[in-house]
């Protein structure tokens, strides 16, 4: 009789596991429009750290292995990026702002690109940024690559 109870317990456990796994496999993927909304909101929140002068919040948007092309040499890793960007947060007024205009997400839902204007304090477009975002956990996107482009005369853009 003890053997029968053990067999029953194992069978019930296996059925529960199979049911759970089947439920996970049947979970529909997140719609691309929803992912684009997540990245847009994340990019806006990232930019808000600059507007709010909230340097403490800035690093949470950056992946551990991120690379930012900010100056003559790339900044590698969250700590180096944060150290390199700290100077932008030191004055009472933000030296620039940015906002996403274009967001695209891979069909796999794992990577996204955002791009848009960078503006000086008067609102004049001085550059364009491009960021690559990676979903590190469900709903949490972090920048893995970031590059501004000030080479062109973006102030003449329509």
Report on the architecture of this protein.
The termini are far apart. The radius of gyration is 22 Å and the shape is globular. Strands 1, 2, 3, 4, 5, 6 and 7 form a 7-stranded mixed sheet that branches. The protein has helices at 2-26, 32-51, 78-85, and strands at 62-69, 75-76, 97-98, 102-105, 111-119, 125-137, 140-149. It is α+β, with helices and mostly antiparallel strands. The longest helix has 25 residues, at 2-26. The protein contains 3 helices and 7 strands, in the order ααββαβββββ. Residues 6-27 and 151-158 have low confidence and may be disordered.
The 3D shape can be described as globular
Strand composition percent = 25-35%
User: Could you name the ranges where pLDDT drops below 50 across 5 or more consecutive residues?
Assistant: 6-27, 151-158
What portion of residues is helical? 25-40%
> H/E series, N to C?
HHEEHEEEEE
The count of helical stretches stands at 3
Task: State mean pLDDT (0 to 100 scale).
Answer: 84
Radius of gyration: 22 Å
Instruction: Let me know the number of strands.
Output: 7
Structural class per helix/strand content? Answer: alpha+beta
How can the largest sheet be summarized? 7 strands, mixed
First-residue to last-residue Cα separation: 82 Å
């Amino acid at each position: 009789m003890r053997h029968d109870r053990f067999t029953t317990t194992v069978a019930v456990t296996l059925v529960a596991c199979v049911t759970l796994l089947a439920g996970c496999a049947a979970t529909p993927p997140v719609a691309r429009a929803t992912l684009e909304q997540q990245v847009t909101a994340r990019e806006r929140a990232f930019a808000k750290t600059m507007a709010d002068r909230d340097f403490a919040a800035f690093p949470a948007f950056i992946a551990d292995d991120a690379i930012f092309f900010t100056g003559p040499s790339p900044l590698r890793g969250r700590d180096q990026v944060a150290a390199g960007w700290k100077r932008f947060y030191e004055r009472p007024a933000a030296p620039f702002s940015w906002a996403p205009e274009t967001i695209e997400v891979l069909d796999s839902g794992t990577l996204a690109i955002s791009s848009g204007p960078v503006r000086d304090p008067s609102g004049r477009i001085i550059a364009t940024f491009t960021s690559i975002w990676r979903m590190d956990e469900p709903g949490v996107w972090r920048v893995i690559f970031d590059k501004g482009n000030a080479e062109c005369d973006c102030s003449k853009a329509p």
